Amino acid sequence: RSRKWSRNKKLELPEGLGATSRINFLATTQQGKRFLLQELSNLEDQRGYSTSFEYFYILATYADLLQMKSKALEYSTKSLKLLNISENILDCDKSLQEYLSKISSLEEEERNCLSLYFKLRFELESNSNIEGQRDNDARLEVKRIDHCDLSVEDFKMNFCAKKKPVVITNYASVISGPQWTLQHIKNVCGSKQVSLKAPRPHSSEWAGLENALVTCVEDYLTALPEHLYLFDWSLPLNAPELAKNFHVPEYFEDNLLTKTGPGAMYRDSWPSLFIGAKGTGSGLHVDAFGSHFYMYLISGRKRWKFYPAERIKDLNPVFWDSLDPTFPKDIDPTIPSYTVDLCAGETLFVPAGCPHTVLNLEQTVAVSGNFVNQTNVQLFKKHMKVNALKDPRSFDLLQEMLNLNLIA
Fold first, then answer.
1. In sequence order, what are the residues at sequence separation of 6 or more whose Cβ sits closer than 8 angstroms to the Cβ of residue 157?
2. CB 198 within 8 A of CB 16
3. What is 360-387 written as a DSSP string?
4. Residue 169, Cβ neighbours under 10 Å: how many?
5. Residue 343 near residue 244 (C-beta atoms within 8 A)
6. Residues with Cβ < 8 Å from 250, sequence gap 6 or more?
7. Residue from 164, 77, 110, 70 nearest 353 by CA
8. Which three-class secondary structure state does DSSP give residue 280?
């Protein structure tokens, strides 16, 4: 109905937005809000649906689009009660196997209700100030440590577990063979297809980036336009010739995602390639599914801006369609933040849950990866349990990791 309404109104939408971002953008306009409020009011006035879980689910979706989160959660809770599904199914003491067995027995509409409820609850929790949860902001000071002075055990204990970002310097033997210049990358995989990203002011996609153009690597690198970004391009899946010459630094080798079988979700997603002209970058975002992140910068210079994970409420996050928040562009400049310029040959670790932005100060080539170890596995499981409600591959990944005794 929203799409039909927007077409009938012939509203002008910002250029470059995908279908999801267009709908979410409409919900932020005055005309869109009036339409949704009227639709919600009409639905609330209807009688005879007090025993229908679908009815309360639809009410919850309208309230969610209108950013009426408490009302949306109220309606969502009613839908679960009518389905006789416990609100605590995600947090109960039942084993992960019991949880997976339970949700596999649900119909798609029931899983959708449960997914919306968890998303709303997660959003309200993220936007609440809980006393005692906030540490000293200074803990997120970004230190530079020479590789020779940092053992894997110290890295896990003092940075992964404590959620502190760090820049690791002088780490050798990351790339074997020829240097990864633009010409070398063109020579190795110039004919491969890439989907390029571009920032859009009103995007509700992750990091504010929308799909902009599909082209071949050679054409992109020859032109290297200032508004297009080669972003998170999987090397194992798309350019195995490059992947075989990249050696994951020892700090990130302990990765549960790579201990699964061939074809498993995320197993071959990383390392991934980032290439961008000066001025490209990504908007404020948090890495997905509770994962840690690293980046090795091959050439150029990148500016990273971090916010403490505990300050996410102050950044006014909005969770449109998942547990991955989007953020407004007008962030309060008084919120404490920590900036570091990553230089060629350095490796940056970004802890799970830490909001950050990235700006390419120069033309850059970088390789990155997301990973899960024992320091963030609980957060990973929380995200994946919710994702598994609507995504069969997330469900299969959890089941495989259980079968392999990687998680419990």
1. none
2. yes
3. ESS-EEEEEEEE--TTTHHHHHHHHHHH
4. 16
5. no
6. 152
7. 164
8. coil
Three-class secondary structure of residue 182 per DSSP? helix
Contact 275, 180 (CB under 8 A): no
* Residue 262 contacts residue 210 (beta carbons within 8 Å): no
| CA 314 – CA 104 distance, rounded (Å) | 37
Residue 8 pLDDT > 60: no
Token pair of 158 as six digits: 């003092």
Asked if residues 290 and 163 have their Cβ atoms less than 8 Å apart, the reply is no
pTM for this prediction: 0.93
CA–CA dist 71, 64 (Å, integer): 8
Bridge partners of residue 278, in order along the sequence: none
- Sheet order of strands, 281-285 included: 281-285, 356-360, 301-306, 338-343
- CA 212 from centroid of its chain's CA atoms: 19
Q: Token pair for residue 91? A: 């947090």
pLDDT in tens, 384-405: 999 999 999 999 999 999 999 9
Query: Is residue 271 exposed (0-12), middle (13-18) or buried (19+ Cβ within 10 Å)?
Result: buried
Tokens 């809000």 belong to residue: 33
Q: CA nearest 235: which of 194, 202, 198?
A: 194
In 3-state terms the chain splits into helix, strand, coil percentages (rounded to 5) of 40, 20, 40
Question: What residue type is assigned to position 154 of the chain?
Answer: D
pLDDT one-digit tens code per residue, 29-69: 898 899 899 999 999 999 889 999 999 999 999 999 999 99
Query: How distant, in Å, are the alpha carbons of 138, 139, 167, 293, 395 from that of 135?
Result: 8, 7, 21, 21, 34
| Rounded Cα gap, residues 298 and 194, in angstroms | 20
383: phi then psi, degrees, rounded to nearest 5: -65, -45
Could you tell me where the DSSP H helices lie in 108-168?
Answer: 108-126, 152-155
Residue 353 falls in which region: left (phi positive, over 0), alpha (psi -120 to 50) or beta: left
Q: What is the pLDDT of residues 243-270, one digit of tens each?
A: 999 999 999 999 999 999 999 999 999 9
Q: Can you read off the two tokens belonging to residue 103?
A: 């949700």
Q: How far is CA 138 from the centre of its chain?
A: 25
